[in-house]
Amino acid sequence: MTSLPDAFAGAWTMPEGKGQVVITGTWSAAEKAYDGSETPQSRPRYTKFEMQSLIEYGATDRFTLMASPGLQQVDIDGADGGRRTGLGYSEFGGRHLLLQDDSWVLSGQATLRVPGTFQRANPAAVGYTDTEIDNRILIGRSLSVGGWEAFIDLQLAQRFRSGDPPDEFRADLTFGLRMAPRWQLLAQSFNVISEGAGTPAFPSYAYYKLQINAVYEATPAWAIQFGGFTTFTGRNALQENGIVLGATRKF
After folding, report:
1. Among 5, 147, 151, 194, which one is most buried in terms of CB atoms within 10 A?
2. Cα(173)–Cα(210) distance, rounded to whole angstroms?
3. How far is CA 118 from CA 47, 50, 125, 131, 203, in A?
């Protein structure tokens, strides 16, 4: 049977009666945005702080319940800017293990994403005001690289967005490598492509992020993580850079 990577779930389900809480703080900023031809252009400064919690619990060995409430603060400079502080998206759903062997797992996941605001007139709330449904297939594999334990997690998602924004295709890839008994390196790629355009405020867009995290397992129950990310290319999207700090508690 494949084993769950420490401090990471992904395609793997939690054992029955076991779970974890992951709390992550993300600060990011952007002073440029990619235009329709993928060229960075200057724009009013955009900053965002998000505090997201992920709670996962194994209802059975094959089905994991999930809840992910969040808080956010968004600031946009300039005459047409704005500010908002309050609830971000809260996500609720579950992940079901479909197939597994000694090194592979295949799971399906469905979540409902509930917005924390409906203030469509506030520029700092644009994109965060509509209910979403996220359906995804997750594939995980445990392997060895140069004698080190490693894993790969691939997630392909269809996100249905109500209201003005278009639906999205998402592809997330994580490579994890255990460099030492208590240290794990995570290299992650997050890719979003809109499926057409929505209203004039939401033209067709795409963006691609690279994130690197280091995870330190302080005890069998506690782990901390730190890292950073950048939006290295995109179309009609922010060129965003940020840092990530988090903690995981297994129970």
Report:
1. 151
2. 10
3. 20, 18, 8, 10, 20
Q: What is the pLDDT of residues 118-132, one digit of tens each?
A: 888 888 888 888 999
pTM equals 0.92
CB atoms within 10 A of CB 176: 23
Determine whether 77 is exposed, middle or buried from the number of CB atoms within 10 Å of its CB (0-12, 13-18, 19+). middle
Burial of 181 (0-12, 13-18, 19+ CB in 10 A): exposed
231 within 8 A of 237, measured Cβ to Cβ: yes
Please, which residues have CB within 8 angstroms of residue 167's CB and are 6 or more apart in sequence?
Answer: 158, 159, 160, 161, 194, 195, 196
User: CA 174: distance to chain centroid?
Assistant: 11
Residue 172 Cα distances to 87, 97, 146, 155, 233, angstroms: 24, 18, 24, 5, 15
Residue 180: how many other CB atoms lie within 10 Å: 10
- The size of the chain, in residues, is 251
Indicate the DSSP class of residue 181.
T
- Per-residue confidence band for 6, with pLDDT thresholds at 50, 70 and 90: low
Residue whose C-alpha is closest to residue 131's, from 181, 171, 167:
167
Instruction: Tell me which residue has tokens 């990577």.
Output: 5
Residue 96: strand pairing partners: 63, 108
